[in-house]
Amino acid sequence: xxxxxxxxxxxxxxxxxxxxxxxxxxxxxxxxxxxxxxxxxxxxxxxxxxxxxxxxxxxxxxxxxxxxxxxxxxxxxxxxxxxxxxxxxxxxxxxxxxxxxxxxxxxxxxxxxxxxxxxxxxxxxxxxxxxxxxxxxxxxxxxxxxxxxxxxxxxxxxxxxxxxxxxxxxxxxxxxxxxxxxxxxxxxxxxxxxxxxxxxxxxxxxxxxxxxxxxxxxxxxxxxxxxxxxxxxxxxxxxxxxxxxxxxxxxxxxxxxxxxxxxxxxxxxxxxxxxxxxxxxxxxxxxxxxxxxxxxxxxxxxxxxxxxxxxxxxxxxxxxxxxxxxxxxxxxxxxxxxxxxxxxxxxxxxxxxxxxxxxxxxxxxxxxxxxxxxxxxxxxxxxxxxxxxxxxxxxxxxxxxxxxxxxxxxxxxxxxxxxxxxxxxxxxxxxxxxxxxxxxxxxx
Length: 444
Ligand code: DOR
Ligand code: ZN
Prior knowledge:
The chain has 444 residues and is an alpha/beta fold. The protein has 14 helices and 19 strands. The structure holds (4S)-2,6-dioxohexahydropyrimidine-4-carboxylic acid and zinc ion (ZN). (4S)-2,6-dioxohexahydropyrimidine-4-carboxylic acid is lined by residues 65, 97, 153-154, 181, 277-278, 307, 324-325.
């Protein structure tokens, strides 16, 4: 029996989109999955009796803002990755709109070092596109992709001139993912001007409407198709965008955020500025269309867009002074399991959209699946557990959730990263041991 080995018995195990869920045993040795099957002969140093539980591959959250460096009073790699571990997220990809922004090869290296020192789970780091950093983009290595803001959001990363966009798509490695924030800057500015007098929170969805998203999405789809450049549409938020994506070329993939699946404009009344994020919340009909798009395959994955801001900022009386973004990494799995319980999707689809698909989209061959040889990144879920989301007990440093007060059915109880338990019985276990998940991924 190998030291540190773990055998999980009795659980219903997610085996992938094709195979679905099976009752099998899983043996973990040396950080990887050594064996999967019914009644394994070999024993392990520790056996976890998971009867009645559900075992899934750890989530791969391809869109988070950890605020490190520069705004660590909102989040840092340690606090954010603890939130990940508690929520069953075993790999996250960090966005470049930090201070300083991650826009040079050196800053990618610096951020990778910060993450390696602080993170309890595995990670990737996006490099941000600017109108002038093509050389840096071309020479940078070790990142998980390029982030492009077609419309301005938190921070000042923005590339919206056609000439710069043609160079970006035409002269970077076409196998690298360009993840695009799709909001049209010109339409947004015009709408902002027209509605400046309004002070209600819902004005945010008026100035960042569905056409703002559609215009930029069409632009990204056009660039991707002409340059045959791997492109990923971030946080799709409307029926219009989902329809445009159903005609995408095969180099394009897309993600949707839990808040766009679960909240809509009717929630402004209850949440005010807490419901402000970019892209904005849309209507209930849009929300339904996003679920449909997931089921039809027009949208591939779920990513949180975890974007912590302080509660003081989010509750400012003037909506124009409230920064955009909501935290989510520790609640995303619980929220989606609860949605599955209510019939929006199946439990197998939760793991498909949140783990298997994002791992495949970003070329992480050893993540997102429970199979012999894969990294032992696992999350054990109690499907019957009723969990209350409470601002007082959030792991994220910002200390609040737009779902404060919600009671969810189904909750992660144990998380493992490459064979080491990092979260169990409500507590973080061990020191930071996260690694760059993209270091060795294939890059054409
Ligand atoms: O709501 C958002 N918040 N959307 C973004 O694009 C950025 C993010 C942030 O960094 O706060
Ligand atoms: Zn984002």
